[in-house]
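Q&A log
Question type: sequence-to-structure
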Amino acid sequence: MPFDFKEAINLMEDYGLYDVVLPFLLVFTLVFATLQKIQIFGKESKRYNAMIALVMSLMFVAATNLVESLNKYLPVIGLVLAIFLGLMLMLGIFGVKEGTGVQKLGWILAGVVALIVGFAYIPELSGVGSVFQSFEDYYTIIIILAIFIGLVAWVVKSGGAPSKPA
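Response status: OK
Response body:
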């Protein structure tokens, strides 16, 4: 009898792989990696970082509405990332080198594509309506996101005060 992948996926879903295990691993990995990278508790704080990541990921899995949202939107994020990767591959194929003036155009194009995909699919996934039907409902969110992205770009571009050598 051949192996049936659909049955295996259904079996994993019945055991809670998609509702408990995978969201737990994703949140744990992201929190732990972030804490390790920023070293907020010092260089030798691996145990503390692991404990904090464990608690945060268990709390995340306990909030079922967050897990449902993650399971709903993660495939869309994966699609946008795949489109972005394809765009970067196309830019590489056509000879765009890092650090050139064309790089800015590539990033602008990638941003426009991400915005179009986002605005096209988010209303459809949330059950609001068809593509671009209720765009006016999102004006506040768009303005807040634009301000936030502008602030982040400003902070990253300014770079802050130069550090003194020790």
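Response note: Residues 73-156 form one domain.
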